[in-house]
Specification:
With 206 residues, the chain is mostly beta strands.
């Protein structure tokens, strides 16, 4: 399975550039779905994973920090956002194959359409920088660099029910952080309960 996925990525990603796509068909019936160049792929050993998802209208993913992605849209259109609601890119409408490189920026995908969105996501991560699912929540306590969050539901941003508490030791603690702020972690290390920093959100998610 890993070999098959690796061959798929090798065939599809012969040096790629940020979220690009192509759909060209010649007279022989061949259809080129991706033909781009990049120097953005991780070097050395990488981890390649593939998942298939279906999101109903309005659904979104959690916040992520990750390496490059290959996206195969089979139904609908996928929209990628960064902090502050910044539009990073759009892939679709289906059928479409796109390359997405967040370049260390946090992101999430959303289905803004009126019908379900079905897609396959192939992740290409360096072994020392695997995909991170960031935590989002409301600050309930601050003690030195240790911050307690009432964690939000990953798919909606609303506070989880029943309540879930997350304690994070923050390397670079924002000076204006206060109890009650809604934040998202940056480079959350769940195993060691650490994060590089916290970013305030303008709303439950932004």
């Amino acid at each position: 399975m890993k070999f098959a996925i690796g061959m798929l990525c090798t065939a599809s990603v012969i040096a790629l550039s940020p979220m690009a796509n192509a759909h060209e068909q010649d007279t022989s019936g061949r259809q080129d779905v991706l033909n781009i160049e990049t120097s953005d792929l991780p070097q050395g050993k990488v981890k390649i994973t593939a998942i298939e998802r279906t999101h109903p209208p309005g659904a979104r993913t959690p916040w992520h920090t990750s390496g490059p992605k290959l996206i195969h849209i089979m139904q609908g259109t996928l929209t990628a956002y960064g902090l502050g609601g910044r539009l990073l890119n759009t892939c679709g409408p289906a059928p479409k194959v796109c390359f997405f490189n967040p370049n260390e920026e946090m992101w999430y995908f959303r289905n803004n359409g009126q019908t379900p969105m079905r897609f396959m996501l192939i992740s290409i991560d360096a072994l020392d920088k695997l995909t991170i699912h960031e935590e989002v929540g409301q600050v309930s306590a601050i003690k030195n660099r240790q911050v307690t969050l009432m964690a939000g539901d990953l798919m909606s941003g609303r506070l989880a029910a029943p309540e879930r508490e997350v304690i994070v030791n923050v390397v670079d603690l924002p000076t204006n952080l206060a109890v009650g702020d809604r934040v998202v972690t940056v480079r959350h290390d769940a195993k060691n309960h650490k994060a590089r920093t916290l970013v305030k959100l303008q709303t439950e998610w932004q």
